[in-house]
Design a protein that fits this description.
Elements: E1 5-7, H1 10-19, E2 25-27, H2 36-45, E3 49-51, H3 58-65, E4 71-78, H4 90-95, E5 114-115, E6 123-124, E7 140-142, H5 147-152, E8 157-160, H6 167-184, H7 194-201, E9 208-209, E10 233-243, E11 246-251, E12 255-256, E13 260-263, E14 273-274, E15 278-279, E16 285-286, E17 288-289, E18 294-298, E19 308-312
Length: 316
């Protein structure tokens, strides 16, 4: 039995309500809940949680909180869709991959030119800079510095956008926000740990913005320079098993003896550990290994099974 399902269509909502009344229903951000009356409407139908529209300010969230006892959820980190609350069909039309089924190609991040219909092949100038024209390219959302404002506005759940993201991104971002959320709820002053910001800079992003929570998104929060993602670290491998500080590692990248690695483990953040030696499955000493190889290495105390290993990208 699922904990709940996320729906946006009223018909699908009522189908679940009639056929599976025991299932908790969460109303998707694509339902565009932007005001108190919408919240009361869904509450009257029997919703459990509302994933609020991405276009709301914190003051508008407070207004909704005042009229409903439902759980409220908002996005706090990740890609920002150029379309209203994520209702986008650009990817579906251009690449036959629907964003609504988790297959978005991020078509809004592409470099576009302008051509008048009757002037085939004649591209009209639309300049941002010498790198191209990225008219719909927002920076990514990051609210880690402002979580207490959302808590104070009555938000019950923070949502991290992870569509089409790898395990390095998901594990690292969730871990960082877990620490921040625990700090926000410990009853003490919310002090930003500079390490959280450094951690988030390691993962793929287009730079960060606070979106519309604090008011109109300023022009500098749109990424006109380029569409490419930036990240400072690569995923090297996953800890599969550990015994007596010897770890069995499934590699996701090349690894050479002498490389310096970081472990995504509590208490070991930002510490570097040099790989002096490694062995293959046959117990033979080796000096290099490739993606998908299984190797054995010594790891420091505190590293756990399923923890990730990463390495700073060359040139960073």
């Amino acid at each position: 039995m699922p904990d709940g399902v996320i729906v946006s269509d009223p018909g699908i909502f009522m189908m679940f309500r009639n056929l599976a009344p025991e299932v908790n229903l969460h109303v998707s951000t694509q339902a565009n809940i932007t005001n108190a009356e919408s919240a009361k409407f869904w509450e009257g139908l029997g919703a459990k949680r509302l994933v609020l529209s991405r276009e709301l300010t914190i003051d508008e969230i407070r207004e909704i909180r005042d009229v409903t006892s439902l759980e409220l959820e908002v996005f706090v980190h990740g890609s920002i869709c150029i379309s209203y609350s994520g209702r986008c069909y650009i990817s579906s039309f251009l690449a036959s991959r629907s964003a609504n089924t988790g297959e978005c190609t991020n078509s809004c991040r592409w470099n576009y030119s302008l051509m008048e219909e009757k002037r085939k092949g004649e591209y009209l100038p639309v300049f941002e800079n010498d790198r191209g024209t990225y008219l719909m390219n927002s920076k990514d959302l990051c609210m880690i510095e402002h979580l207490p404002l959302l808590v104070g506005a009555g938000i019950d759940s923070f949502k991290i956008e992870g569509r089409m993201k790898g395990i390095n991104y998901v594990a690292g971002v969730v871990k960082t926000y877990r620490e921040a959320v625990d700090t926000a709820y410990n009853g003490k002053a919310y002090n930003i740990d500079p390490r959280w910001l450094r951690e988030l800079s390691m993962f793929s992003s287009r730079g960060y913005t606070t979106g519309m929570f604090l008011g109109k998104q300023p022009d500098e929060d749109y990424n006109f320079d380029e569409a490419s993602y930036k990240m400072s670290h690569d995923l090297v491998g996953v800890i599969l098993e550990i015994k007596d500080n010897i770890a069995k590692v499934g590699l996701r990248n090349r690894l050479d003896a002498g490389d310096e690695l970081e472990y995504l483990s509590p208490g070991l953040e930002e510490k570097l550990f040099k790989i002096d030696s490694m062995q293959n499955n046959e117990g033979e000493k080796i000096f290099s290994a490739r993606n998908e190889d299984i190797i054995y290495i010594n790891v420091p105390s505190g590293v756990r099974a399923n923890d990730l290993i990463r390495r700073k990208k060359s040139g960073e």
